[in-house]
Amino acid sequence: MTREEDLASARRTVEKEIEALKILENEISDSLSQALDLMQKTQGRVIITGMGKSGHIGRKIAATLASTGTPSFFVHPGEASHGDLGMLTEEDVVIAISNSGETKELSDIILYCKRYGIPLIAITKNPQSALGKAGNIVLKLPDNGEACPLGLAPTSSTTATLVLGDILAIALLERKGFTKTDFRQRHPGGKLGAFLQKVADLMHKGDEIPLIPNTATMQDALLTMTSKMLGCVGIVDNAGHLEGIITDGDLRRCMSADIFAKNAADIMTRNPKTVEGDILVAEALKMMNEKHITQLFVLKDQKPVGILHMHDCLRIGVA
User: Is the model's pLDDT at 187 over the cut of 60?
Assistant: First the structure.
């Protein structure tokens, strides 16, 4: 094939899959809300099942639901017939995925749901199929054919199923008022987990905080900055409230022969940018980038309880 033919093929695939998503968007109905009601009210878990490519998509949907506050896991239909049906309880909700709705491997799970009164949400393009008729609720997939020129390889149908799973997960997330803190608790590892840490989890505390009184000399300021190695020093009043900050940059700008004859309060920048400990590290990093600064004092009741340095964010992979 030529380069032009490759590009034309790629565009046809994209167009066909976009067409499927447009149909999905236009066909969203009250059955979606009914499915969400079942999923939100369940006292158990949301069990996803499907065979072949539907199963692969089902695993992703289960993972997305679990990470956004809806307890969920995937059960393979074949394994279900050999003992894993015991994973299902009467408090669960089952979502079974089959584009045709006639996947024979799903029959045992369907019968089990009917026998024990477990609500069944069917995801299929054919509501009149065996799965569609068995479902308490049917979420219809687009029936516009596959992007595959043979009309065989699951392509448009799996894309639509994946998006439908995202629709369910996001709608449930919004219904439950799921927060960034909730999300972080389920994503403690990797760069995402680092971004979702709170400033209080990362800041320097106690003796690590570079602080001097507002009566201190510039010599005191320089000694404190050197010993704490955070590139700044905070100046506090008699009550311990932060009055200002002196940074390495301030020293360079104010360098003169008589600098050590001055008090720190004469040099400091008043009302420096500060944060509270319960904001996310990612938000603090955004502030530092926007203000072109490398440190933020962390305050509680106007008193410094910590300090966050840009290098702390870089060290954990937040950049």
Answer: no
CA distance 267 to 258: 12
Task: Give the rounded percent of residues in the chain with a pLDDT score beyond 70.
Answer: 94
Residue type, 306: G
Tell me the CATH class for 199-315. Answer: alpha beta
How long is the chain? 319
Cα-trace Rg, the chain: 29
Residue 5: CB partners within 8 Å, gap ≥ 6? none
Mean pLDDT of 18-22: 95
Surface-to-core class of residue 31, CB atoms within 10 Å of its CB (0-12 exposed, 13-18 middle, 19+ buried): middle
Distances (CA, A) of 43 to 32, 93, 185, 203, 252: 19, 9, 21, 39, 63
Nearest of 236, 230, 211 to residue 221 by alpha carbon: 211
Domain parsing of the chain, residue ranges:
3-178, 199-315
Amino acid, res. 22: K
Tell which CATH classification among 1.10.3720.10, 3.90.1570.10, 3.40.50.10490, 1.10.10.10 matches the domain 3-178: 3.40.50.10490
pTM score of the predicted model? 0.66
Cα–Cα distance, 95 to 98 (Å, whole number): 10
Closest CA to 80 of 119, 109, 120: 109
Which of these ranges, 74-88, 154-168, 179-193, 259-273, has the smallest mean pLDDT?
A: 179-193
